[in-house]
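Need tokens for this chain, all 268 residues.
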Amino acid sequence: MLETARTIPTVPKSAGEKKSFAGIGLIWWRRLCQAAITAVIGQWSFYGIFRCPFIVPYVSCQNCPVITCHGRLFTVFWGFWLLLPLSVVIFGRAFCGWACPGGLVNQLLGHFAPFKLRIRNTLTRLFPYLLLTASAAALYVWLPGGQPREVVPIRVGGFFESIRLTFEHANLIWLARTFVVLGFFAFGLLMANAWCRFVCPTGGVLEWIKPIALFGVFKTDRCNDCNKCINVCPMGTRPAEANCTNCCDCLSACPQDAIKIGRLPKGR
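Here are the structure tokens for all 268 residues:
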């Protein structure tokens, strides 16, 4: 006897499923935003590593003889440093997760890293202090140290030829700074987002002042500490905690719909 076919009723999408789709949409918007801003200021970041004659790039652009660098353009230079603190007041450390070209490169490299370090222990809780140490060192070199030029930015022929000459004529301290930066970027192929999580001076400053932010991503009382948000977070953290960059990747991962984006609650 043939079994009578039964009609399976259509179940409407739950609020959690709708939230999941919204979270995935934000992920794509973030990727688009990162790509667009990298296209605008990515060259500036490249110059900062390979061609800036100062130990701390981006803060002495008005005194820099490298006229081809974006930072040498007065309006771009001051516009960036005025908008960055404003972005922190509005949305915390979102610059790191949504706009920083270096952050984009580190996240792309992190996809290949075998160690994501997405756990909560004493070691990971110390990471923000490493960031603050790097920020303090950069501020010391820039302000009390006077930040003298440590390389003659020679401009001959093509861009890569100029880079070769820069390395050839650079002082030891400039070479040490540059190889440390490149080393941590390379280390990102082993441990995801090593530069952004451990030593980025800009990220450290933003981490220190982000508690003043008005809006951001945060957990509600529905959170049951399942830590699925950590498993998708590029920075290996939870919403509104240390190293959170408000990237919003965790919004679609929470099974409890316990992660929200909006005005941060008091006493968070």
